[in-house]
Amino acid sequence: MSETSKGGFKLNQDMELTIPNHFKCPISLDLMKDPITLSTGITYDRESIDKWMEAGKMTCPVTNQILRNFDQTPNHSIRKMIQDWCVDNKSYGLERIPTPRIPITPYDVLETCSRMEASTRSGDSRKCLELVIKIKNLAKESERNKRCIVVNGFGSTLADSFDSFSRYSMDKHAHLLKEILSALTWTFPLGQEGVSKLKSSVSLRCMARFLKNEDDLSSRQNAICVLRDVVSVDKDCVNDLMGIEAIEETLFQMVKVPICPRATKASLVVIHQMMSCSEKSGLVFVQMGLIPLVLEILVDGDKSVSEKALGVMDSICSWKEGRESAYQNALTVPLLVKKILRVSNAATEFCISSLWKLCLGENENVLAEAVQLGAFQKLLVVLQIGSGERTKEKVTELLKLINLYRDKLDCFDSSMGFKHVKRPN
Q: 99: which DSSP letter?
């Protein structure tokens, strides 16, 4: 049995069970599963009216009256009538709709925040753990609950607890800290106060410690995702992060031995931020063998991870030693040319920036190789479709340089593959 577009249920080719009009949501025209009544007296399905309000509409869809408030009162009478109607028609294969759970309210979230803050101040890790698990379970019930939890600042409370219990004892409170990290992965943005707690040296060291725990993949994934969000919001914390012993090796292993695509992308973002801030840190990554890993990602990775990998490559090409190491790998230039216009606008800008740095660097052979790979044609297209001013400048410079070599070499398109590519002597 399937629901039809006319507000009924298709039983077979000839029969259709019609839903009573007062059981239909005025917005979706579907059977209401969680009927609620607004201040105007009109009843809607909760999911439909939530989407209406989230779109910024402040009126009642039926009456077009401006809503005095956004209170939603569960309509138990209609809900019970709908459930009884479903039971009466169960012979047609109709299932009784379950009684919906009452969604969490801003007051509930703020009260939980207050209780957790008090428990954190008193060092009551058991109570904090209980509250974190309670909130996580409520978030799992519906996207509406999750949004309510995030909007009302529970993430900042989590960050404060994470920082506090990291100071007490990482070993003693490991379970609580893991649960907080898990919840923090979906509570961003935190606000300035919350970020300030997570970027403390104690919090950063705690997250780095979880990253090193090879026996707990879930905690490693959560730690790198939270770390990514922190460095993306506040780049000042990167210097503190680089002060953690063996952090480069830890992040390198996250890419070398991937847990999941999400963790790999997060690791590349953190590495990119570190390399952008410190040439010394970048050289450490290159010496460990980051370039072959990045190129391997570009060969097999999806668009999202490829964009992150190209950002890392652009950082590598920002200094002499990085450019030299990048060019030593035969796949560097072919992949940079191949990925132009194939991934995203940001990825194309990273490709052009990397090629520009390589071509204007100490190794002029890059230019000849790029011409052989069809870079000239692709750069012309980039210039035609438009890009940022800085990228346009780089494209123009590259085209001028490439034009010097274009008549001397036979060009072929990079889509043909790499097996015939030969380095110029």
A: P
37 SS3 class? strand
Q: Other C-beta atoms within 10 Å of 276: how many? A: 17
Give the pairing of strands 8-10 and 2-3: antiparallel
Tokens of 280: 């010394």
Name the nearest CA neighbour of 111 among 72, 79, 56, 148.
148
Q: Is the peptide bond before 98 cis (omega within 30 degrees of 0)?
A: no
pLDDT of residue 406: 59
- Please tell me the distance from the alpha carbon of residue 414 to that of residue 302, in angstroms, as a whole number: 18
Nearest in space to 159 (alpha carbons), one of 218, 111, 206:
206
DSSP-based three-state secondary structure for 327: helix
Question: DSSP code of 91?
Answer: G
Confidence of residue 417 (pLDDT cuts 50, 70, 90): very low
pLDDT tens for 357-378 read 998 755 568 888 888 888 888 9
- Torsion-angle region of residue 218: left (phi > 0), alpha (psi -120 to 50) or beta? alpha
158: helix, coil or strand? helix
Separation between Cα atoms, residue 7 and residue 9, nearest integer Å: 7
Q: Are 48 and 25 in contact (CB under 8 A)?
A: yes
State which H helix or E strand residue 244 sits in: none
Question: pLDDT band for position 176 (50/70/90)?
Answer: very high
State the pTM of this model. 0.80
Q: How far is CA 393 from CA 323, 352, 388, 396, 400, in A?
A: 20, 10, 9, 5, 11
Q: Is residue 374 within a helix (H) or strand (E), and if so which, with residue range? A: none
